Amino acid sequence: MVAPAIDRRGFLRVSFAAASGLLVSLYLEPNVLGQEAPMPQQQAKVYPPEAFVNIRPDGKIVIQVNRLEFGQGVQTSLPMVLADEMDADWTNVIAELAPAADVYKDPLFGIQIVGGSGSIAHSFTQYRELGAKTRAMLVAAAADRWNTTPDKCRTEASVVHGPGGQTATYAELAADAAHKPVPAKVNLKSATEFKLVGKRVKRLDSRPKCNGSLKFGLDLDLPGMKVAVVAHPPVFGGRVKRIVDDEARRVEGVRDVFEIPLAKGTGVAIVADKFWPAKQARSRLKIDWDLTGVEQPDSSELWTRYRQLGNTAGLVAVNRGDANAFDKIAAGDRIVAEYEFPFLAHTPMEPLNTTVRFDGDRAEAWAGSQFQTVDQMAVAEVLGLKPAQVTFHTEMAGGGFGRRAVTDSHIQREAAVIAKRLRGTPVKLVWTREDDVQGGYYRPMHYHRVEVGIGPDGLPAAWRHVVVGQSLLMGTPFESFAVKNGIDETAIEGTSDTHYSIPNMHLSVHHPKVNVPVLWWRSVGHTHNAFVMETLIDELATRARMDPIAYRRKLLKPDAKKLIGPLDLLDKATAAWRNKLARGHALGVSCHESFGTGVACAVDVSIDNKRPRIHRATIAVDCGIAVNPLSVESQFQAGIGFGLTQLVPKGAITLKNGTVEQRNFDGYAPPYIIDTPMTVDVHIVPSTEAPTGCGEPPVPVISPAVVNALARLTSKRYRTLPLVSV
Amino acid sequence: MATYQLNINGERREVTVDPSTPLLWVLREDLKMTGTKFGCGISACGACTVHVGGVATRSCIVPISHVGDRPVVTIEAMSADPVGRVVQNAWVEEDVVQCGYCQSGQIMAAVALLKHTPRPTEQNIEESMGGNLCRCGTYPRIRAAIKTAATQLTKGDA
User: Fold this and answer.
1) DSSP run (H or E) holding B11
2) Euclidean distance between CA atoms B150 and B148, whole angstroms
3) Could you count the other beta carbons within 10 Å of the beta carbon of residue A582?
4) DSSP letter (8 states) at residue A25
5) B79 interfaces chain A, CB cutoff of 8 Å
């Protein structure tokens, strides 16, 4: 992994604000995506102070979190990292979500983003250094005060202790510390000196999320605010031909009805005093749509097309050893497997929304955004402003899973277009659940065709694999990062870089163009690639009559450290239960590395009413240093539940004549409590390596583990998702 | 438009709204009580769960004209409710929440369960919580927190 670029590029700026104490800011040179124009430096006066740490006179230490919190726990874990190096009193730490600003850009990505499970991985060193530098300045101020040197002072729980027994709180020292030079270098703690990092620390946001007081983006209420909904075309890219809006306008509380441009095609915005009249009015609109020249995709036709493509080699991504080794394997030693993965919607619990107020020469926006830099630029562009003229507030978001990081910022653009017309009035755009389920930006559907030739040792001797699916990144600013020779690497991640030793491997890719907007969905290409790899490897293990853990151990390359550790730990952690399963139960195993984190998973499954019943799951994980083991445990316990979206019977978005067939949680039903494991135990491989992410890595392992168990019960292989019936 | 006298968390509240307006939106937009969440609008996710006449109810499909004089209790009243407080504390103790958006509804469903069934079985939990969606997937910890709360609430009982 590349180390964060802070040491070379960053510098600290310290300023003193009389009311608010010490402010420490870390500035990074603009490190701009692709070919976009550089972002101008934001003006501090426009924003709340561009700072990471604010020691308030009352002793509270307010730490800015440079990315969205939407469940992953970063609003607790990053402040832990900073507070630990700072020796801050944790009971007085307050975490805030930072607004959009250059200073809060991801040190590696160069934009403000939650993505690639990088929040801790990319900001661990950044936040440690911020904490250590802040501490050093406080100690320097104390040493001056006591006429001694910093090395004779020590710190604990927001207090500096001097050599003669003197004490001063951080709050008392903040004003003096602000005038101290920012140290160029600081010593960071050794692992044994951590007081918070590595400890099970409870979330800071629990209580307000349990008593209804926490405000999400959708809860925003501003004086004079209006609510907008948009009628979208029934086919992506359709355009409004004629609007009959008399009935809609008669709904009490409706203020305006007008056509707006969309990311694709056009739609009709309804602005009302409140949500209910806006929604009522939308249902009374009559719109004739112009679908001339608009491709109307159909799922069954797409599958036919994808299967045909899959029977031919595509652009070659991996060509190792003998590409035609498979043809030399006897028919009885071959597996030919075809897999189908449908479109999947993210459906975060909080429906998508954004609020914008346009004041002519400036604007303000409020959004639970994973992608503040891009969304701020989009709002600015629509309003004819510079990004710096748009104050962009990061709102707490009710889940996201990738859906709040969209390269075309279509939600923010819709909100800005409407707000532009209602100049001076804040407008909250709400996408209803129907808009969300039918509105595109899905995990792309994929077809895999794999031919495996089995060697005399039971191991895969030949592997020929074709992947068919839309590219996520072509035509986006990320294209130059992850599209190589026409191949979108996210389509094959987890297969092209498999840690299994497969001597002869040929992997090729087709990227058909389809009129359905697609998007990364928590763990991205690993969702389907891990399913294919882990079900096939399991089938090979069964054929070889080997234990599924032992077979994987045998097949993994010796350098697959992030998987070997978890598999060995899984072996130990499941020893008590995996060979003593109740009658009608079976074991299912999988392992997969994604985003630098290795995961091994075992499940105890029975069949209940033609559905898998998951009695328990045991997870072993190597994520380097587990900054907050409690948070890691929670991410895995729950993240595998999200991963089961792939297996539930109504876990598919399908299209008929260009229109999405599902409307809401009745037709597209994610996992409920009954669909998920009754209990999950998580085991963490002890490590002193740099931390890697835990947001996405839980997702890929669970579905293959469950169907591997089902296969033991039924002797059937499950390769078409969703799993409608066992 | 019509005017309704409501009993919300023990207080009399008056609103003038269209009779078709769901209770959810009266709570959120007219009474500014945003603890009750909008998730789907078709009673399929449980994020909007409140108690109406003591029964866990999806407020997104109850027109305000159907509420009548039945008392409505929301998440905002749970800190002062003897069972609600224990459940909230169990949720914090078990570190249940992630994004947190569904948890008002989860807690309202759990409180209703525990008020009627102080010692719920695993099956009771699955039935009562079965329609409350959590996209983060916090279900294992929800199960644990309900058991923790049940233990707390029945402590000292015969």
Assistant:
1) strand B11-17
2) 5
3) 9
4) E
5) yes
Q: What tokens appear for A687 in the block?
A: 């490590």
Strand A61-65 with A53-55, pairing:
antiparallel
Q: Say which amino acid occupies B98.
A: Q
Which DSSP symbol is given to A312? S
C-alpha to C-alpha distance for A608 and A710, rounded to whole angstroms: 11
Cα distances (angstroms) measured from residue A5 to each of A84, A285, A412, A537: 22, 53, 30, 39
Encoded tokens for A116: 């690639």
Residue type, A327: D
| Number of Cβ atoms within 10 Å of the Cβ of A275 | 24
Size of interface A-B (CB pairs under 8 A): 194
Residue of A71, A635, A664 lying closest to B40 (CB–CB): A664
Cα distances from A695 to residues A105, A400, A639, A684, B94, in angstroms, run 19, 11, 7, 15, 19
Residues A504-556 have pLDDT tens digits of 999 999 999 999 999 999 999 999 999 999 999 999 999 999 999 999 999 99
- Which pLDDT belongs to residue B158? 52
Q: Residues A58, A186: contact at Cβ < 8 Å?
A: no
Q: Is A135 helix (H, G, I), strand (E, B) or coil?
A: helix
Mutate to test the interface with A, among B31, B38, B96 (most CBs of A within 10 A): B38
- For residue A625, give the H/E element and its range: none
ipTM of the complex: 0.98
Per DSSP, the residues of A381-435 read: HHHT--GGGEEEEE-B-S--TTTT--TT-HHHHHHHHHHHHTTTS-EEEE--HHH
Tell me the three-class secondary structure of A494-558, residue by residue: CCCCCCECCCEEEEEEECCCCCCCECCCCCCCHHHHHHHHHHHHHHHHHHCCCCHHHHHHHHECC
Give me the amino acid identity at A93.
Answer: V
Return d(Cα A593, Cα A492) in angstroms, integer: 13
A639 touches chain B (CB under 8 A): yes
- Here the tokens at position A161 are 């202790």
* d(C-alpha B41, C-alpha B99), whole Å: 20
Distance linking the first and last C-alpha atoms of chain A: 41
Beta strands in A164-294 (DSSP E): 167-169, 226-231, 239-244, 254-261, 266-272, 286-290
Using 50, 70 and 90 to split pLDDT, how confident is the model at B30? very high
Q: Does B78 sit within 8 Å of A211, measured CB to CB?
A: yes
The DSSP line for B20-54 is T-BHHHIIIIIS--TTS--S-SSSSS-TTEEEETT
Its pTM surpasses 0.80: yes
Tally of CA atoms within 13 A in the half-sphere of B131 that contains its CB: 17
